[in-house]
Write a structure and sequence with these properties.
It is a multi-pass membrane protein. Pfam families: GNVR, Wzz. This protein is of the alpha+beta class. It folds into 3 domains: 7-39 and 171-201, no CATH class; 44-158, EIF_2_alpha (Alpha-Beta Plaits), CATH 3.30.70; 206-248. It has 9 helices and 4 strands. The protein has a 4-stranded antiparallel beta sheet, covered by helices on one side. Helix 2 packs antiparallel against helix 7 (173-198) and helix 4 crosses helix 6. The chain is rod-shaped.
Protein backbone atom coordinates (compact mmCIF):
# COMPACT_ATOMS: atom_id res chain seq x y z
CA UNK A 1 0.00 0.00 0.00
CA UNK A 2 1.43 3.34 -1.05
CA UNK A 3 1.86 5.77 1.82
CA UNK A 4 1.06 9.44 1.46
CA UNK A 5 2.11 12.25 3.76
CA UNK A 6 -0.20 15.23 4.16
CA UNK A 7 0.84 18.80 4.75
CA UNK A 8 -0.74 18.58 8.19
CA UNK A 9 1.54 15.67 9.13
CA UNK A 10 4.59 17.60 7.93
CA UNK A 11 3.62 20.61 10.02
CA UNK A 12 2.98 18.38 13.03
CA UNK A 13 6.42 16.85 12.64
CA UNK A 14 8.03 20.30 12.53
CA UNK A 15 6.00 21.41 15.54
CA UNK A 16 6.98 18.32 17.52
CA UNK A 17 10.68 18.81 16.70
CA UNK A 18 10.59 22.61 17.03
CA UNK A 19 12.97 22.65 19.99
CA UNK A 20 15.50 20.51 18.11
CA UNK A 21 15.28 22.72 15.02
CA UNK A 22 15.71 25.95 16.97
CA UNK A 23 18.59 24.52 19.03
CA UNK A 24 20.58 23.31 16.01
CA UNK A 25 20.05 26.60 14.18
CA UNK A 26 21.19 28.67 17.17
CA UNK A 27 24.23 26.45 17.73
CA UNK A 28 25.24 26.81 14.08
CA UNK A 29 24.88 30.60 14.25
CA UNK A 30 26.84 30.87 17.52
CA UNK A 31 29.67 28.61 16.31
CA UNK A 32 29.92 30.56 13.04
CA UNK A 33 30.00 33.87 14.91
CA UNK A 34 32.69 32.73 17.34
CA UNK A 35 34.86 31.32 14.55
CA UNK A 36 34.42 34.41 12.34
CA UNK A 37 35.02 37.00 15.06
CA UNK A 38 37.67 35.32 17.22
CA UNK A 39 39.43 32.51 15.33
CA UNK A 40 39.77 33.58 11.68
CA UNK A 41 42.53 36.04 10.81
CA UNK A 42 41.28 39.25 9.11
CA UNK A 43 42.61 39.67 5.57
CA UNK A 44 43.11 43.13 4.05
CA UNK A 45 43.40 44.04 0.40
CA UNK A 46 45.37 46.78 -1.34
CA UNK A 47 45.09 47.53 -5.05
CA UNK A 48 47.01 49.49 -7.64
CA UNK A 49 46.31 50.21 -11.30
CA UNK A 50 48.70 49.92 -14.22
CA UNK A 51 48.05 51.59 -17.56
CA UNK A 52 49.24 49.83 -20.70
CA UNK A 53 49.70 52.66 -23.18
CA UNK A 54 52.66 53.90 -25.21
CA UNK A 55 53.78 57.36 -24.16
CA UNK A 56 53.19 59.92 -26.90
CA UNK A 57 54.76 63.20 -27.73
CA UNK A 58 52.88 66.15 -29.11
CA UNK A 59 53.50 65.14 -32.74
CA UNK A 60 52.29 61.57 -32.30
CA UNK A 61 49.04 60.59 -33.94
CA UNK A 62 46.45 58.40 -32.22
CA UNK A 63 46.56 54.90 -33.69
CA UNK A 64 43.68 52.44 -33.12
CA UNK A 65 45.93 49.57 -34.18
CA UNK A 66 48.37 50.44 -31.42
CA UNK A 67 45.57 50.41 -28.86
CA UNK A 68 44.53 46.99 -30.10
CA UNK A 69 48.11 45.81 -29.75
CA UNK A 70 48.22 47.06 -26.19
CA UNK A 71 44.98 45.23 -25.41
CA UNK A 72 46.41 42.01 -26.80
CA UNK A 73 49.54 42.44 -24.69
CA UNK A 74 47.55 42.77 -21.46
CA UNK A 75 46.97 39.01 -21.16
CA UNK A 76 50.70 38.49 -21.52
CA UNK A 77 51.41 41.20 -18.96
CA UNK A 78 49.02 39.58 -16.49
CA UNK A 79 51.15 36.45 -16.60
CA UNK A 80 54.46 38.30 -16.43
CA UNK A 81 53.41 40.30 -13.34
CA UNK A 82 53.10 37.11 -11.27
CA UNK A 83 56.13 35.40 -12.78
CA UNK A 84 59.34 34.72 -10.80
CA UNK A 85 61.13 37.30 -12.98
CA UNK A 86 59.10 40.00 -11.21
CA UNK A 87 58.23 38.47 -7.86
CA UNK A 88 61.76 37.36 -7.01
CA UNK A 89 62.84 40.99 -7.21
CA UNK A 90 59.86 42.09 -5.07
CA UNK A 91 60.69 39.51 -2.41
CA UNK A 92 64.33 40.60 -2.39
CA UNK A 93 63.70 44.36 -2.25
CA UNK A 94 61.01 44.13 0.45
CA UNK A 95 62.92 41.41 2.33
CA UNK A 96 59.80 39.29 2.55
CA UNK A 97 59.92 36.00 4.46
CA UNK A 98 58.31 34.04 1.65
CA UNK A 99 59.04 32.56 -1.75
CA UNK A 100 57.91 33.93 -5.09
CA UNK A 101 55.36 31.11 -5.29
CA UNK A 102 53.89 32.03 -1.90
CA UNK A 103 53.77 35.70 -2.90
CA UNK A 104 51.97 34.77 -6.11
CA UNK A 105 49.17 33.28 -4.00
CA UNK A 106 48.56 36.72 -2.47
CA UNK A 107 48.35 38.57 -5.80
CA UNK A 108 45.36 38.84 -8.13
CA UNK A 109 45.74 40.44 -11.56
CA UNK A 110 42.88 41.28 -13.89
CA UNK A 111 41.50 43.83 -16.31
CA UNK A 112 38.13 44.87 -17.63
CA UNK A 113 37.14 43.84 -21.13
CA UNK A 114 38.60 46.14 -23.81
CA UNK A 115 40.36 48.19 -21.12
CA UNK A 116 44.03 49.12 -21.06
CA UNK A 117 44.03 49.35 -17.27
CA UNK A 118 45.36 46.38 -15.30
CA UNK A 119 44.19 45.98 -11.69
CA UNK A 120 46.74 44.47 -9.32
CA UNK A 121 45.38 43.45 -5.90
CA UNK A 122 47.27 42.00 -2.94
CA UNK A 123 45.76 40.31 0.12
CA UNK A 124 47.60 40.05 3.42
CA UNK A 125 46.82 39.99 7.16
CA UNK A 126 48.83 43.23 7.47
CA UNK A 127 47.23 46.12 5.58
CA UNK A 128 50.54 48.02 5.29
CA UNK A 129 52.36 44.98 3.91
CA UNK A 130 49.58 44.49 1.36
CA UNK A 131 50.00 48.08 0.13
CA UNK A 132 53.80 47.79 0.04
CA UNK A 133 53.67 44.59 -2.01
CA UNK A 134 51.15 46.04 -4.46
CA UNK A 135 53.15 49.23 -5.04
CA UNK A 136 56.51 47.46 -5.23
CA UNK A 137 55.19 44.85 -7.68
CA UNK A 138 53.85 47.60 -9.94
CA UNK A 139 57.17 49.50 -9.76
CA UNK A 140 59.28 46.42 -10.50
CA UNK A 141 57.00 45.43 -13.37
CA UNK A 142 57.20 48.90 -14.90
CA UNK A 143 61.00 48.83 -14.64
CA UNK A 144 61.51 45.28 -15.91
CA UNK A 145 58.97 45.07 -18.74
CA UNK A 146 61.16 47.02 -21.22
CA UNK A 147 63.92 44.44 -20.67
CA UNK A 148 61.56 41.49 -21.03
CA UNK A 149 59.28 42.61 -23.88
CA UNK A 150 61.46 45.32 -25.49
CA UNK A 151 58.59 47.79 -25.18
CA UNK A 152 57.97 50.77 -22.95
CA UNK A 153 54.21 51.13 -22.71
CA UNK A 154 53.53 50.67 -19.00
CA UNK A 155 52.83 53.40 -16.46
CA UNK A 156 51.43 53.34 -12.93
CA UNK A 157 47.99 54.93 -12.94
CA UNK A 158 47.19 54.74 -9.21
CA UNK A 159 49.19 53.57 -6.23
CA UNK A 160 47.81 51.43 -3.44
CA UNK A 161 46.67 53.53 -0.50
CA UNK A 162 45.44 52.28 2.86
CA UNK A 163 42.90 54.44 4.66
CA UNK A 164 43.06 54.99 8.41
CA UNK A 165 40.48 52.34 9.30
CA UNK A 166 40.22 49.92 6.38
CA UNK A 167 37.76 47.08 6.72
CA UNK A 168 39.04 43.55 6.08
CA UNK A 169 37.64 41.89 2.97
CA UNK A 170 37.36 38.58 4.80
CA UNK A 171 36.11 37.01 6.87
CA UNK A 172 32.63 38.58 6.75
CA UNK A 173 31.11 37.60 10.10
CA UNK A 174 27.53 38.71 9.37
CA UNK A 175 27.49 36.88 6.03
CA UNK A 176 29.00 33.78 7.64
CA UNK A 177 26.39 33.83 10.42
CA UNK A 178 23.57 34.25 7.90
CA UNK A 179 24.85 31.30 5.89
CA UNK A 180 25.24 29.24 9.06
CA UNK A 181 21.63 29.99 10.04
CA UNK A 182 20.33 28.85 6.65
CA UNK A 183 22.49 25.71 6.60
CA UNK A 184 21.69 24.92 10.24
CA UNK A 185 17.97 25.36 9.63
CA UNK A 186 18.07 23.08 6.59
CA UNK A 187 20.07 20.45 8.47
CA UNK A 188 17.76 20.63 11.49
CA UNK A 189 14.61 20.25 9.38
CA UNK A 190 16.18 17.33 7.53
CA UNK A 191 17.16 15.69 10.82
CA UNK A 192 13.64 16.19 12.19
CA UNK A 193 12.08 14.40 9.23
CA UNK A 194 14.76 11.69 9.39
CA UNK A 195 14.04 10.99 13.06
CA UNK A 196 10.33 10.92 12.33
CA UNK A 197 10.90 8.49 9.44
CA UNK A 198 12.81 6.03 11.64
CA UNK A 199 10.35 6.37 14.52
CA UNK A 200 8.34 3.12 14.33
CA UNK A 201 6.30 3.62 17.49
CA UNK A 202 2.51 3.70 17.20
CA UNK A 203 1.38 7.19 18.08
CA UNK A 204 -2.33 7.25 17.24
CA UNK A 205 -5.22 5.20 15.88
CA UNK A 206 -4.33 6.13 12.30
CA UNK A 207 -0.97 4.38 12.70
CA UNK A 208 -2.76 1.22 13.86
CA UNK A 209 -5.00 1.32 10.83
CA UNK A 210 -2.04 1.80 8.48
CA UNK A 211 0.03 -1.02 9.99
CA UNK A 212 -2.73 -3.63 10.42
CA UNK A 213 -4.83 -2.60 7.46
CA UNK A 214 -8.00 -2.99 9.56
CA UNK A 215 -10.70 -0.46 10.37
CA UNK A 216 -10.83 0.97 13.90
CA UNK A 217 -13.97 -0.03 15.81
CA UNK A 218 -13.39 2.02 18.92
CA UNK A 219 -10.93 4.09 20.88
CA UNK A 220 -10.25 3.94 24.62
CA UNK A 221 -10.05 7.46 25.90
CA UNK A 222 -7.05 8.47 27.96
CA UNK A 223 -7.78 9.80 31.43
CA UNK A 224 -5.05 11.54 33.36
CA UNK A 225 -4.63 11.64 37.13
CA UNK A 226 -6.30 15.03 37.46
CA UNK A 227 -9.42 13.83 35.70
CA UNK A 228 -9.51 10.73 37.94
CA UNK A 229 -9.36 12.91 41.05
CA UNK A 230 -12.15 15.12 39.70
CA UNK A 231 -14.32 12.04 39.05
CA UNK A 232 -13.67 10.77 42.59
CA UNK A 233 -14.67 14.13 44.07
CA UNK A 234 -17.82 14.24 41.97
CA UNK A 235 -18.71 10.67 42.98
CA UNK A 236 -18.10 11.45 46.65
CA UNK A 237 -20.24 14.57 46.40
CA UNK A 238 -23.00 12.61 44.71
CA UNK A 239 -22.94 9.94 47.43
CA UNK A 240 -23.10 12.61 50.14
CA UNK A 241 -26.10 14.19 48.43
CA UNK A 242 -27.89 10.87 48.13
CA UNK A 243 -27.15 9.98 51.76
CA UNK A 244 -28.52 13.32 52.92
CA UNK A 245 -31.68 12.87 50.88
CA UNK A 246 -32.17 9.37 52.31
CA UNK A 247 -31.80 10.53 55.92
CA UNK A 248 -34.15 13.42 55.30
CA UNK A 249 -36.88 11.19 54.02
Amino acid sequence: MEETISLKELLETLKKRLLLIVSITLIAAIVSGVVSYFLLTPIYQASTQILVNQQKNEQSVYSPSEVQTNLQLINTYNVIITSPAILDIVVSELDLKMTASQLKGKITVGSEKDSQVVNLSVQDPDKLVAAQIANKTAEVFQKEIPKIMKVDNVSILAKADISENPAPIKPRPLLNVAIAIVVGLMAAVGLAFLLEYFNNTIKNEQDVEKILGLPILGVIATIDDQQIEELKLKRAARKSTLRGETLGS
